[in-house]
Amino acid sequence: MIITPERVHHQERSKAVAAATSGRLKSRRQALLQAAAEVFFEQGYAATSIDAIIERAGGSKRNIYNEFGSKEGLFSAIVAESADKLLSTLVIEEIEGHDLEETLTAFGRRLMGLYMSPTLIGIYRIAITEANRFPDLVKAFYEQGPGRATSRLAEVLEFASKRGEIRADDCLRVAGHFVGMIRDNLLQVIFALRPPPSDEEAQEAVASAVKVFLNGVRPR
Predict the structure, then answer these.
(1) Per the database record, which ranges form the HTH tetR-type domain (predicted)?
(2) By C-alpha distance, which of 142, 156, 171 is closest to 107?
(3) CATH code that applies to domain 1-69
């Protein structure tokens, strides 16, 4: 096949068009997820209809069902999107060999920031409210959100254990302890016991959790 300048130009133009189309679709998806999240949090999961989401975000039922399959699929996508933002900070290949205290601090701050975002506060409130009526929905939420975060942190702790930085027979359980210390701050906000912490308060809470996690509370 003879590669002519015209053919090269056509291929480059096709790639540019494809990239632009992909970018528009991604932006459109993000806008839809954001609008859907707002409606879910305002009206609750059970009371929210696809029509209400379309009224807020635009588009059509056909597009939503083609991409997400159902209202439950749309809500699960919101959860997965939020979890991905957190887990992107815990790429094993990037943190292997780094100081564990620094890794836990960075993870804890990112987790705290995510937990205190309006999106996660809304998701947790829906999960608590709808747990009995929609158990599959709540199970999917846990597996995609808290469960994934704990599992990823457990991988980090496995590396730390192999390096001799910690001693832990069950890294998944130990990871759950750390995530639980961070999540306690979220529960207080969900139950309206306090407003979301300031940046300084959040950093202090994370530092305390890291210290207790690594050193315990008994005097040495």
Answers:
(1) 26-86
(2) 156
(3) 1.10.10.60
Q: What is the pLDDT of residue 29?
A: 87
Which of 83, 69, 108, 111 lies closest to 214 in space, CA to CA?
A: 108
Taking the C-alpha atoms of residue 145 and residue 128, their distance in angstroms, rounded to an integer, is 14
Give the N- to C-terminal CA distance of the chain in Å, as an integer: 76
Tell me the C-alpha distance between 187 and 5, whole Å.
62
Looking at residue 154, its pLDDT comes to 93
The closest alpha carbon to 12, from 1, 2, 3, belongs to: 3
Q: Which pLDDT tens digit goes with each residue over 137-187? A: 778 778 777 788 888 899 889 988 988 888 888 999 999 999 999 988 888
Is the domain 71-219 a CATH 1.10.357.10 member? yes
* Residue 199 predicted with pLDDT over 90: yes
106 to 11, 97, 111, 152, 217: CA distances (angstroms): 43, 15, 9, 14, 22
* Three-state secondary structure call for residue 110: helix
Dihedrals φ, ψ of 217, to 5°? -120, -5
Its pTM stands at 0.71
Domain boundaries, the chain: 1-69, 71-219
- C-alpha 213/C-alpha 150 separation (Å) is 14
Q: Is residue 96's pLDDT more than 60?
A: no
